[in-house]
Amino acid sequence: MRSYCLKRFLFSVLFIFFSCYLLSAQTSLQLKFKRSFVYAGIEVGSKGVKMSLIEMNKNTRQNLDYNIVGDTSINTDFISFTPATFHASLKALCDLYQTALVFYRVPSSRIYTVISSGVKVSAQKDEKAKWIQTFIDSFKIKIHDPNRKVEVIDPEEEARLSHLGIIPESKRFTTFLIDIGSGNTKGGYFPNDNTDHIKLFTLSWGTQSTANAAIKRLDGDYSISNYNRQLQRVLQGDANKEITYAVNVSGAYNMSDNVAFSGGAAWATATLLFPELTDDPVVPVTYEEVEKFNQKLYSDYNSFSEKELMKHFAKDKSINKVAIAHAIKTVNKVFDQKAMLAASGLLLKIMRQFDGLYERKQFYLIKNGQVGWISAYVNNNTGN
């Protein structure tokens, strides 16, 4: 009897502790609206699985007013399409889903799970389309939810949602949005006063797929000099041909005043190029600035380490050094030198098409673009 009572007591203590833990997790989110809902968007991308926690206020459907309260990712390299990366991606998706559901107490109805267009394009290219359905079925079994909706977004819908979620309404019809993902690049613009249909821009090249193409050419020489040489051949060859054709067909040069880049390449470049602007979600840049950045990545990569970059701000008391150091460290954890060279190299190739002799577009790097699709996706899928 004493043993039974002791077990009941310990169970009660653990239950109270766990309940307080969950409540603490929920209240730790920095919410800013009086009347709002928190949504979780989990995206299985080419490079990994990302989760964004978004607070959306009552008027979100009118003004896209949202607050990013959480953002995390797990690198799994799904588009390598090996058993190891399949299971790593599945575990990451399940873990993030449970984190949103249990730890942050987001109802399952407000958790959106999506397979990115980059995965879809890469799977079609490598004849691995069946892997995606197997992956979705395995996820439903793991979380014991056979009716869970896991949408595989095509490039056009992802581009439309991203534009609606990222670009301010005041610049809706003058901005060409280009999202450089890991497996592909997609984007577009709205040529008319109609946001139901976007003029699509797509490339089969992304940061990871471009890097992978260069790595396949190394032929046993894994030095950074040989990697950069093969990367330039990839960028100047098939990638450049596809980029030039896609931009010309899109008609975006004549229709857009602003060219905004989102995705990991934009986030990483903006953070390392202007770390002091860590709190700015949108950073204006020039072609020349990105070009010099790309050259320095190859010739003096160590200068972009946390230690070296923070030396520039040692005497500046007006900035948040802790936040800046954390942002730099995060980028260097996600992108190594080879990935950064591929990211900035692909970015430059696309920018070059808009850097005209007589008319120069205004370029922007968007650092929080990963939350764009979920804000627009929520608007499209809920009445809240």
Description:
By secondary structure, the chain is of the alpha/beta class. The protein folds into two domains: 29-153, 2-Layer Sandwich (Nucleotidyltransferase, domain 5); 167-371, Exopolyphosphatase. Domain 2 (Nucleotidyltransferase, domain 5, 2-Layer Sandwich), CATH 3.30.420.150. The chain contains 15 helices and eleven strands. It has helices at residues 2-27, 60-63, 83-103, 117-125, 129-142, 155-166, 207-215, 224-250, 252-255, 264-273, 287-299, 306-310, 321-334, 337-352, 372-381, and strands at 36-44, 48-57, 66-75, 111-115, 150-152, 175-180, 185-189, 199-203, 258-262, 282-285, 362-366. The chain has a six-stranded mixed beta sheet, sandwiched between helices. Strands 3-2-1-4-5 form a five-stranded mixed beta sheet, with helices on both faces. A hairpin with a 4-residue loop joins strand 6 (175-180) and strand 7. It is globular and about 50 Å long.
Could you give a short description of this structure?
The chain has 384 residues and is an alpha/beta fold. Helices cover 51% and strands 17% of the residues.
* Backbone structural class: alpha/beta
Main sheet record: 6 strands, mixed
CATH third-level topology of the largest domain: Nucleotidyltransferase, domain 5
The name of the CATH superfamily of the largest domain reads: Exopolyphosphatase. Domain 2
Distance between the termini: 52 Å
**SSE order in H/E notation?**
HEEHEHEHHEHEEEHHHEHEHHHHEH
CATH class of the largest domain: Alpha Beta
Question: Helix amount, in percent?
Answer: 40-55%
* Strand-residue proportion: 15-25%
Strand order of the largest sheet: 8-7-6-9-11-10
